[in-house]
Specification:
Number of strands: 0
Oligomer: single chain
Number of helices: 8
Shape: globular
Distance between the termini: 27 Å
Strand content: under 5%
Radius of gyration: 15 Å
Largest sheet: none
Number of domains: 1
Structural class: mainly alpha
Helix content: 55-70%
């Protein structure tokens, strides 16, 4: 999944307007404009489309964690990673939403996708661990779709 796709989905799931998005980026220590956000949210074939780079996406996700959970006790915000992968995006969303393994499995099961607890824990291990597994697009997509089903019902 592209960073832009994840950004669009998170915005829709949590009904975030441009002002909220700018605030979240600011919490992640990145100043962005309404125009930049608009370009990142455009469809891939739009001429005004701009790619959301890993560092920008990491800043958004770090800001999302701060918005949902609060800043660390010392007030620091993690430095945005220069490279992101699906595992890191999944982990940051898990932290921001304060989800446990059972919660994630429940969310994913809303999409008729099955995932075991051991499979799930493999996504959150360090990359050099022998049981580490790459999180494929299908898993992240089903997690985001499950979040949409869970959270959009509450909004409507």
């Amino acid at each position: 999944m592209t960073n832009n796709d994840v950004l669009r989905r998170v915005r829709y799931i949590f009904d975030l307007n441009d002002k909220a998005m700018i605030e979240i980026f600011a919490l992640g220590q990145l100043e962005v404009t309404r125009e930049q956000i608009s370009q990142w949210l455009k469809k891939d074939d739009d001429p005004d489309y701009k790619n959301c780079h890993d560092k920008q996406m990491a800043s958004f996700l770090n800001g999302f964690i701060v918005k949902r959970r609060g800043a660390k006790e010392d007030g620091s915000v993690p430095v945005p990673e220069k490279r992101l992968n699906n595992n890191m995006i999944f982990m940051k969303l898990k932290i921001a939403l304060n989800l446990k393994a059972e919660d994630i499995i429940e969310v994913i099961s809303l999409t008729e996708f099955r995932l075991g607890k051991h499979e799930l824990s493999a996504f959150f291990r360090k990359s050099d661990h022998k049981h580490y597994r790459d999180c494929k697009d299908q898993v992240l997509r089903n997690f985001l779709n499950g979040l949409m089903l869970r959270h959009r019902e509450k909004l409507e």
